[in-house]
């Protein structure tokens, strides 16, 4: 299926949370990347409602495939292989994408690769900045995940260094936004509010700071912000939303970048990839640039559109496992809501 | 017409390949596996097996018919997502059949009855039929005790689970599940006779469970003075 002239055409399907993503990729070239999001349907609930997400995936799946194929200028019969998210994620949401992917694989008689969502977040950087150096450390920060990975090889060797023990960083953003009467999802409005604030005005706690692990904790930070706001209100002190937002954001970015740089140092790695929805955060990016520059580490952050959930990340990882010559996944594979990062490919 | 039929809206994962000919509908191959928790694992391999059993290629299929429920949502969506993608990739039309209508057709009954499947949460999805081919009114979801049976026999897994409520022998509930063979026959006949079939979209009959959150919970304990005020 691989010709000397061009790498195989991979269709990637993603449905682990609230975005239905479909993309077409050849090697490191992104041909089309279509996303249908149900985020607006979740906004009034203040978080993703699994059943709402699953229903939206079913409605959006085939139209999104059609749109992506049109945009890429390919026919489904041109596809050489299909990659799909098997996990981690929401069971009902994953199952819609996996069922569709199996049906496409069967009907088109093409191999199917069930891949890991988190590793996809790292692989997607190749579509923007070209092949990843080996090894890299990856910091994945989103509404569902906060993980540090050591990636020696995208297709075959990914190791979990640490992850959040409670809330994901993005979840903390959503909860703090709600405390401050800012809209859902909380990342962009907190980032905007923080621009006019002073990140040193309040010192919020850094969970698991200097505990000798690469794990994170954001639940205590969220509670600390809630306490501070309640105390201020009770005592009749004005609550400066920009200052609270900036100080909260400082605490998140501080602990994330510190542990990421420590991980690079310990493993002698000179490249850090930051991905996931929270990678779009301006303070996280600035502080990572600053600290990595000081430590002689190069930072790679995909553009925001590629950092959030999409089909491109899955197609990019699919291209990588196909190029590595790994065997395809069986048609009876199941979704795995807590698939470990070390399982890049399910077979 | 070579129609591929399947249903995943009950614990039965069921697939059939049906062909219409001059002397009616012929079921070329069919398979059913009952496993309420593995719809996603079972369906696509089952389709591959049924197509192979019939000695045809998937490209020979001219129509797809899928059970649209109602039924437990996660399993139900496996069938629909599969049907949508197969139809798209093969470039063939896809129609829906209410799962209860397939169950009713599978019963072959010629006198009035009620078909009921398990809706979980101690409820059933149900509808009334004058015979195997004819539903009267809409499909509903209720607690078994709230189903107005009007003394009619009740069939299906719902009747089996709540035989005591319906006041009948659990064994009288057969058939418990729809078969894709029945679903396919039902669809082929409707397509041939020009009887409209539903779009291949899910019948949920319930809204998603979700609560709009109130104000954030307070993290501080109220002081004694505050407690005194609220009394």
UniProtKB/TrEMBL annotation, chain B:
Q: Looking at the record, which segments are called Disordered?
A: 194-231
What range(s) does the Gcp-like domain occupy?
36-140
Q: Which InterPro entries match?
A: ATPase_NBD, Gcp-like_dom, T6A_TsaB
The family database entries (Gene3D superfamilies) matched by this protein are listed as: 3.30.420.40
Stored CDD domains:
ASKHA_NBD_TsaB (cd24032)
One Gene Ontology CC term in the entry: cytosol
Biological processes per GO annotation:
tRNA threonylcarbamoyladenosine modification
User: NCBIfam families under this entry?
Assistant: T6A_YeaZ
Name assigned to this protein? Gcp-like domain-containing protein
